[in-house]
Amino acid sequence: MTEQAVQAMQSGTREVRTGTEVVGEAGQIFQEIEELVAQVSTGIRDVSSAVQGMENGSQKIKSSMQTVEHHSQQSVQEGQTVSAATEEQAAGMEEIASSSHKLSGLAKELQEAVGRFRI
């Protein structure tokens, strides 16, 4: 009976050692998990920061594109104004040319009329 008690105590001691080792290993695993979670958390913060930076960059690009569009529209309007002014100027030049031609004809007629009244 003493022998059985000793064996039972030795068996219990081995089980306690095994249990202690398992608990120690579990503690190490939990520590590793905690470190990995911290790394993932840092990675998520980094990605979040990068996304925020990209969003800011996208907003700047959008603003620049709107400015380019505004200037393009302004250029088109100014081009249309210049085109209209050029057309008006061309029409004015045609009128001047026509008037000059008529004036030249009148000058010839006047010279002929003056030529008849010579003394």
Provide the fold topology:
Blueprint: H1 2-116
Brief overview:
The chain has 119 residues and is mainly α. Helices cover 97% and strands 0% of the residues. The protein has one domain (1-88).
Oligomer: single chain
Q: Low-confidence parts lasting 5 or more residues at pLDDT below 50?
A: none
The average pLDDT is 91
| Cα-based radius of gyration, to the nearest Å | 51 Å
Give the structural class. mainly alpha
Structural write-up:
With 119 residues, the chain is an all-alpha fold. The protein has one domain (1-88). The chain is built from one helix and no strands. The chain has one helix spanning 2-116. It is rod-shaped, with a radius of gyration of 51 Å.
Task: Label this structure with key terms.
mainly alpha; rod-shaped; 119 residues; single chain
